[in-house]
Amino acid sequence: MGAMAAVKYAELGAFLRSRRERIRPADVGLPTGPRRRVPGLRREEVAQLAGASVDYYNELERGAGSQPSEQMIAALARALRLSADERDYLYRLAERPVPVQGGAASHVHPGMLDLLGRLTSTPAQVITDLHVTLVQNPLAVALVGDQSGFRGPRASFVHRWFTEPDTRRLHPEADHESQSRAFVADLRAAAARRDAKDPEVGSMIRTLLGVSPEFAALWADHDVAFRRDDRKRIVHPTLGVIEVNCLNLFSEDGRQRLLWFTPAVGTDSAGLLDLLGVVGTQDVGEASVSSPTRTGGRSPRRGE
């Protein structure tokens, strides 16, 4: 490690410690406890929230150890409720490129994370306008699988929907056409809201036009509509078909949305959703999905 890198890593450790000490356990959904002798969070609590080992996080705070990955930095930024400027500073201290907004490592606003943490009895997740999953609560993982580990173009559920047939097992076959149409209309709305020269959305559209005749045909219809609310059927490997309402809270710039699922009225979905916490996550053997680098001990993904 060079002298300059050593100085930066020492500053990185000091910065992490300062951010850890300012957060109350209740801010991140942890019990305060009667014997807390340190201000803010304990090191092991930050490690747990970020999906890292305690030893690894201790090394980071000491300014030692290996260079943290971009995925780890994103996880730490969320665990410590960093602002956008603080998140960018952390990336630079770790000598990693600051990710563009909209990708799998996008910064999630602390307020949106706080809302997600308060939704303990309903499945919820934060996704981007291109349907990249940024963070999920445990019930969302139990309902639709862990989607947070995909990288590159595959990070977008819309990309996987039109390029990986197994992804569609999440919904009954009778619903596939309507889902495809809704995804394309939502993507067109997102593309219009972004800058015309945005490379991420432009690359995604060009790729899908080239590899998916279905996408190309729907894109030619020029339908445009954000998915503000929706009613859909989700196929769970243990509980069967669960019919839910999907509600969205959009960020100010429209690039992120907090998505949560509630039981559809007139169905038995309320009881099925109650069972999610008991059933937990399920592996349906998605053989076509490779295992990306993980930052935590989550179970295999299924879809969105």
TrEMBL record:
CDD domains per record: HTH_XRE
Which part of the chain is the HTH cro/C1-type domain?
40-87
Kindly give the Pfam families that the UniProt entry links to this protein: HTH_31 (PF13560), MLTR_LBD (PF17765)
Which superkingdom? Bacteria
Q: What is this protein called?
A: Helix-turn-helix transcriptional regulator
- Organism, per UniProt? Streptomyces lancefieldiae
